């Protein structure tokens, strides 16, 4: 890959960040031989399918230093790991209910030298900590997701936008988001129409639900 692809869409990356992103491919390849965290087909387009897609959240929200972000159902570390590289001053907690996936997240995070990632094996709904933002991709339908979030939002606010959820979603969302006040951002607009024809970031402010 394609450092050039990353730099096209994130031109302010530092040398350290460029090296960290480059290392991800090696680490996921190594881990994938031991534990199948990413399908072979997806590994061929790791950057587009997983890394750039995860970073789509950064096109919609800049996490200020000190912000605490939870990635629910992170799987092999998406969107949490790419975001943690992009925002080194932000604290990321990545949780998944499958232990072997979290072992990979822990190893990859250490492998790229991330100091701002905590990996937790457990169910999101049981977690007691509070966060400013919750990110996620491909875990469950929004109504169920919202039920998991009770008591999980900090009151203080670092960003111009209210604390809330940034959920990466594909396809037709009308039914799933019916009655919910949210903003929907089409990712293809941020990537010159080159990727993500049907992919969106759904932003739901915490004001929407009982936090
Ligand atoms: C389809 S995978 C998506 C993984 C990752 N977010 C990605 O996009 O590559 C869904 C993940 O959510 C996790 N998961 C499902 N319910 C969960 C819960 N209640 N708490 C934590 N993780 C959960 C599963 O173990 C699985 O790894």
UniProtKB/TrEMBL annotation:
SUPFAM superfamilies: S-adenosyl-L-methionine-dependent methyltransferases
The species this protein was found in: Chryseobacterium artocarpi
Membrane spanning stretches: none
Protein name: Ribosomal RNA small subunit methyltransferase G
Job description of the protein: Specifically methylates the N7 position of a guanine in 16S rRNA.
PANTHER family named among the record's database cross-references: S-ADENOSYL-L-METHIONINE-DEPENDENT METHYLTRANSFERASES SUPERFAMILY PROTEIN
Positions of S-adenosyl-L-methionine binding: 73, 78, 124-125, 137
Locations listed in the record: Cytoplasm
One function term, GO molecular function aspect: rRNA (guanine-N7-)-methyltransferase activity
EC number, UniProt record: 2.1.1.-
